[in-house]
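TODO from last week: model L-histidine N-alpha-methyltransferase.
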Amino acid sequence: MTMSQPTIDPLLVADAVAGLWQSPPVLPAKWLYDKRGSELFDEITRLPEYYPTRRETEILRRSAQDIVAQTNARTMIELGSGTSEKTRLLLAAFAARKTEFTYVPLDVSVEMLTLAADQVAVEFPEISVQPLHADFGDPDLELAEHPGPRMAIFLGGTIGNLDPTERAGFYRRIARALRPGDYFLLGADLIKDTGRLIAAYNDRAGVTADFNRNVIEVLRTGLDATGLYADDFDHIARWNPPEHRIEMWLRARRDIHARFGAIERSWELAKGAEILTEISTKFSLEKLHEELGTSGLQQLESWTDHADDFAVVLSQVA
Ligand SMILES: C[S@@+](CC[C@H](N)C(=O)[O-])C[C@H]1O[C@@H](n2cnc3c(N)ncnc32)[C@H](O)[C@@H]1O
């Protein structure tokens, strides 16, 4: 009897090969979001320390009607849609117009995408829900085939997971993938007290630590590894002042001697050495406006919550 081999994702292989042998080792944040990672992130959004989701929800509740009136969009494409939880505020406002409307949730996490799309389709039978399993970093991403005007939305502060070079490329690609006159709605976390920021990424219940460590499990199963265990790593959340960002690292608790069967390579990490697993950049409103403006996205309006913790910015493709 032959055992079936697990399928190996060539994109995980490419990112692991490009990142793990760097100094310090680094992995793109998207690998945090397998099925379990997506469920853990959903749990994070309800933690007392994790203010961004509550603040962005407050803004969307207040601005949804305004966004509908300003854009009159016929399609909403959500990049990194996750559970689509907050998005329901926008969907309800669009559905109330009683005109045809298409919602395209897009995510790398296929299980969460399918579940959320099914739930939204049941809750909003008048909306056409067309889930798209894709990477928002894909240079060939095509969004303009859906009825216009289109609005791409990028919520949850996910923009902060991209470094300045990646953000510039991302904004340019979005502007190119849409058409002139289409809209882009961005939710971004603002710079604030460092203690609150660190607490939001290092909660007392340890959910963010489990979320971070889960990427080791993604590597172990995805690359058929031996000698690699999530419990051998500590979760670190650290503020990087010059870059205005929280960084999530995994620090080895012991010397790691791992072997990746899928790529036939060994990987050594000394006790105390760290892997960078996610950055979460925080912005000033001025910085957001400047970056959008230089990428061909003209800002129409921005909203903040009552505590000025989070911002939602509506812009239009020039
Ligand atoms: C910080 S969560 C935000 C989820 C949701 N938008 C919210 O506001 O709560 C990031 C989401 O983006 C997805 N994601 C991360 N990298 C991605 C990529 N390169 N392409 C598509 N989706 C991605 C994750 O699976 C996850 O659902």
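Done. The first helix runs from residue 10 to 19.
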